[in-house]
Every structure is written in C-alpha cells, then in structure tokens.
Design goal:
Helices cover about 25% and strands about 20% of the residues. By secondary structure, the protein is of the alpha/beta class. The chain folds into 2 domains: about 15-105 and about 200-250, 3-Layer(aba) Sandwich (D-Maltodextrin-Binding Protein, domain 2), CATH 3.40.190.180; about 110-200, D-Maltodextrin-Binding Protein, domain 2, CATH 3.40.190.10. Strands 1-2-11-3-12 form a 5-stranded mixed sheet, with helices on one face. Strands 8-5-9 form a 3-stranded antiparallel sheet.
Amino acid sequence: MGEAKYSGMKSEQGGKHADLMASLPWYDLPSAHEDLDDFWSVLRRELEAAGIHDLPRGLDRTTPIRNQWQRPGLVVSQCCGLDLFTPAAQSLAPLARPVFSDVDCEPGNYFSHVVAARKIERQPRLAVINSASSRSGCVALLEWATERGWLNLDVVISGSHRESLRYLRDGLADIASIDAHSWNLLDCSGMSIIGRSSDAPAPPFVAHRECSVSPAITLQSVTRAVEEAGDLIGISGVLPASLDDYQRLSGQSASLERYRSRAD
C-alpha cells in the first residue's frame, strides 16, 4: 500500500517530531467520500486555528487501518469500542463519542439491526459477521442470538457490513447485524429487519497516545467542526470519551467462544 501524501513539515509540539496523518475510516464508503473530505477540511481548519500547521491535506485512504493505529502522528481516526481492548489498538486513546443524528437511542450510543434476506422460520444455520472485534457486526449479533437460545450457529467472516449484506443476498449466510448508522448509508434493498441489538457506546474518534497534538486540542477542534459541519456526516454532536466509557465492552468478545467460526 502507498503512503498518503503529506505537507512535508514536521510537528514540534511538545518536543516530538512525527508526520501527522488523519483518517475517518469507519463510515468511509465511496458514496460518502466527498462529504467526509469536506468535513476534514473544516476539522483541519479548526486544528490550524489552534496552532497545528503541519496537517495532511487529505484523509489517508491507503494505509491499512491497523498500520495507521501504530503511527504516533495519527491525530484523528476512528475505531470500534471493542478494538480499544485488542493489541492492534493498544496505542489509541479515545477522544469523543459521536452523537448520530439518524440513530434513535441515547446520545453517544448506537445499536445494530439484525437482518435477513429470507424469512427466518427456525434457528438459522449460518451467521455472517464483519469482524471478530466488531461490536456492531459481531458481538451484537451473537448476543441477540444467544438471548433466543441459538447457541449452535456457525459463523463466517465477511470483512465489512457491505460484504455481509452481499452474503445474505447471495444465500451464503442467513443473518447478520448492521449498525444503524451504516444501515442508512448502505444499499439494504431486499433486507428485512428481524431484530434490534442492545445499545452500546458509539465508535469513538481516537488519536495515537504519543501524538504531538494534545488530545484537548483535537477534541476541541472535533467539537467545533461537528458544530459547523456535522450534518455532512450524520453527526449532531460529540461527547468526550475515555477508555472507561468502553470498559464494559472489553469482555464481550468472550461471546465468540460458544460459536465455531470460520473465515472464507
């Protein structure tokens, strides 16, 4: 993968030096690129107004997400709340919880729709999840299934919510869970909502713990950018976030232990 292009300058805040990078990957579908780019332009302007002048002009869409998370120059990105408790994301600090304008639940939370492409008359055979570390596409689904006594589901991993929907359409799986914000961005034609998961803290905005830009500056800039242009990305506000907000999710991946998983 190629690296994103940067301004070529170095950050000197706090005596540290690192190329800064930014991404907003969690809902970065092709149809949303333009709006996310416009939002980043506003956020970048707010960061510059706070004295940060070595920011990338564009969002990084080429570096693998887990590689981004290892970069000390990562000034802002996103992850799943469950990711915060995995080795790949141990260097991340949560900054803010988005308040989705299109999700009907407590501000700062979200939930998943449990969906199927065909009528479910008995326990389904196969569930499709987007990732084993996903709250919305994995644990939410398995919790919902467990509540119904469906303890013998096989699981196949698709890699994304969009791919999970394709699995359902193509008859490669029976049920999936799609987070409610993604549901409004994806082509969900032919899908039926058959259930709703419990609520959970929304996927946070994050930064690398060693980033030279202070978390307070980034949080302030994100807050102001959302006030000005959050409607572009379906966010009406943000709430400050800490690891404690997501702590209750840390043990939820244990739900996987009762399922036999297999990847394509």
